């Protein structure tokens, strides 16, 4: 019959062996927000977002503002680093294809009380070789995704067109960065 010292030694060895096998078996898992994003991508290049919109306000370019918002959102929410050259691991390109403004509520004196502003953006995220990274959960066509965002302008509350556009741009940037997540 084994003594108490031999039993505790055997138990200790089994515990260490179990811990070693458990650690080795789980070595391939990723933890934290890194599990949400592609493991083979570390850097993203975001060229200036082009705009097909005819709504040009001097000094207020939607493409520039959306590019800035997307870069900030990538840095804030993802493990990726935004770099300024095309030698990055991946390239996120986007184009504003539509920018509309529609009156929802009108006053008796024909003044706008509530206006809805919509932005539609076509987004493609590809690696350096041109292979599309956003696969699986991306609607057809797989090479590009059409993302839309609406914001409501209520002039009586002191909202301006620029502040409403900025709200839509921030929400659009969140949607675009959300597309960079891996499917579950």
Number of helices: 3
**Known CATH architecture of the largest domain:** 3-Layer(aba) Sandwich
The averaged pLDDT comes out at: 75
Give the CATH superfamily of the largest domain. Answer: ABC-type transport auxiliary lipoprotein component
Radius of gyration: 25 Å
Give, in order, the helices and strands: HEEHEEEEH
Largest sheet: 6 strands, mixed
Query: The CATH topology of the largest domain is what?
Result: Rossmann fold
Would you count the extended β strands for me?
6
Count of spatially separate domains: 2
Low-confidence stretches: 135-143
Give the distance, in angstroms, between the N- and C-terminal Cα atoms.
Answer: 53 Å
Which secondary-structure class do the elements indicate?
alpha/beta
Shape: elongated
Helix proportion: 25-40%
- State the CATH class of the largest domain: Alpha Beta
- How much strand? 25-35%
